[in-house]
Amino acid sequence: MLNITTEQLNSWLTIFIWPLVRILALMTAAPLLGSSNIPVQVKLGLSVLLAILIAPLLPSLPQMDPGSGTGLIVLLQQVIIGLAMGFSMRIIFTAVEMAGEITGLQMGLGFATFFDPQQSGQVQLVGRFYGLLATLLFLAIDGHLQIIGILAHSFTTLPVGTDGMDVVSFTALVNWGAKIFTFGLHLALPVLAALLITNLALGILTRAAPQLNIFAVGFPLTLGIGLLVMSWALPYFTPVLTQLLGESFSIMRSLVNGDSSAIGIP
C-alpha cells in the first residue's frame, strides 16, 4: 500500500505551487499573454505547462509548509516578482496607445473609440491601430519567447524564498513607469508638429476671412493631414518601437538580475 506523508506532500507542493504562482502573476500582467481575449483556461493550462517544465530545473527550494505564515510570505514574493516583470513590459504598450490617444485627439477622432480587451477599456481608433502594430511587432521579434526565457532565468537569479526584489529594483520600476509620457510624446511628435502648423494656419485663415466656416474646413483638413503624416512617419515608427521593446527586455532582465546600474539607478 502506498503511504504518503505530510512532509512528502508539502515538498511536492513547494516544487510546483510557488513557481506556478510567479508564472500566473506574469501571465496576468504581461502584454499579449495577459490579454482578456485569451481564455482563462488557456492561460492556466500554459502556466501549468511552464511550471512542469521549469520545476525540474529549479535550485533547491526552502522546505516549509506552503500554508504557514512564512510560506504565505514566499507566495506573496512570487506574486510581486511576476507582476513586476509583466509591468515592465506593459509600459511600452501603454506608451504606444497613449501616443495614439494624443494623435487621435489632435486629428479630431476623439469620438471614434473601440473596446480594447487588453486594456479592458475604451481606446481611440488611432490608439487601437498603434496597439495592434506594437502587438504584431512584439510577435515578429519573438517577444513572447523572450519573456518566457527571462522568466525561466529569474528562478536562478531570484530563487524562491523569503528574499524577493530589493528596494532599488522597485525604485527602478517606478522610474521606468514614468517614461510612459516621454515615450508616448516622442512617438506622437511628428503628427503633433504637423497638426500644430495646420491649426496655426487655420487660425490665420480664420482671422483673414471671418466669414469662412472653420468647422466645415478644419475637420477634414486636420484629419487628412494627420493621416498623411501618419503614413509618412510609419516606416520610422517601427525601428523606434523595436528599440523601445528592446529596452523593456533589458529592464526586465535587470530587474531579475538585480543590476541597478543597467537601469539608471546609482
Task: List the main descriptive attributes of the protein structure presented here.
266 residues, mainly alpha, two-stranded antiparallel sheet
Outline the secondary-structure elements.
Elements: H1 6-29, H2 40-54, H3 69-107, E1 113-116, E2 121-124, H4 125-140, H5 143-157, H6 167-177, H7 179-208, H8 214-257
Antiparallel strand pairs: 1-2
Helix pairs in contact: 1-2, 1-3, 3-4, 3-6, 3-7, 3-8, 4-8, 5-8, 7-8
How would you describe the overall organization of this protein?
- The chain has helices at 6-29, 40-54, 69-107, 125-140, 143-157, 167-177, 179-208, 214-257; strands spanning 113-116, 121-124.
- With 266 residues, the chain is mainly alpha-helical.
- The chain is 73% helix and 3% strand.
- Strand 1 (113-116) and strand 2 form a beta hairpin.
- The longest helix has 44 residues, at 214-257.
- The chain has one domain (6-263).
- A two-stranded antiparallel ribbon has the order 1-2.
- The model has no long low-confidence stretch (mean pLDDT 78).
- The radius of gyration is 24 Å and the shape is elongated.
